[in-house]
UniProtKB/TrEMBL annotation:
UniProt domain ABC-type glycine betaine transport system substrate-binding: residue ranges: 33-315
GO cellular component, one term: ATP-binding cassette (ABC) transporter complex
InterPro entries: ABC_Gly_betaine_transp_sub-bd
Name of this chain's protein: ABC-type proline/glycine betaine transporter, substrate binding domain
Key words of the record: Signal
Amino acid sequence: MHHSLKKSSTLTLVFAAFVTTLPLVASAQSCGRVTVANMNWQSAEVLANIDDIILTEGYGCEVELVPGDTMPTLTAMIEKGKPDVAPEAWINAVRLPLDAAVKEGRLHYAARSLQDGGAEGWWIPKYVADANPGIKTIDDALKHPEIFPSAEAKGKGAVHNCPSGWNCQLTTGNAFKAWDAKAKGFLLVDTGSAAGLDGSIAKANERKQGWLGYYWAPTAILGKYPMVKLDAGVPFDKNAFETCNTKADCDHPTKTDWAKSEVFTVVTDKFKKTGSPALAYLNKRTWGNDTVNQLLSWMNENQATGADGARHFLKTQPELWTTWVSPEVAQKVKASL
């Protein structure tokens, strides 16, 4: 807080009293234009579209969804103050600069988007785990390149990496180095995109083949194809993870578990100052992994877009989302559906 804001006078008290008597509709209009990051994975995309509908219809904001991704979006928010809202920010990998920006008052944490947090790590199909009860940890899996064969090189195993631009591409690449997977007969496979990563899981499951690689929950594909998260076999090393394993220039990565991911909505200081009372919604808007998995599965089965998924959720689960907003706002949103 700036020290100048602590100064008070009769004039400011009178002005404050006047402002608090203004109708809420004026605040809604003052919400103005809001840029919301539409991240390029399914759970974040549907959440951005839910925010779009609720902020537009319920609070009178003029919302623009802008393409987003974890690192570029949060970096832009820290350095440029845009976009205004990142609905589903997986903050573990960018905790240090993000906390610094929050401390400086440039950004603010709103609700925990995923109240259960996210689970990250290396996974194998359940049928592989059932057939190989000795494979419990990453080390166990890396003893068996023949169970996780590479399509690219005969006799080699494959570890499937994250799409380009995602921070997990760095953490998976560094884990691959830390576990010395190359020396154990494995290749790191570039899956190219989220669709490529999902496609590799689907293909392996449908053919009952081995698959090893990075994934996370909540996700529709883990609902459709039962997968088992491997134990890292080591605890989470916060210092090593934050200072090296999340960096592109990490020369000596460390064997470390992934932390249980904290997933928050992050807003800019400008939005906090102008977005009221819409900020109250973003401070309350949180959901559980089961809810998300069910919605994502519905979207996959119906080839639904993020906008389709948002409308389906708002139509079918009012008992959840109406707890995030006032009755007046809920009525406006319901009328728009």
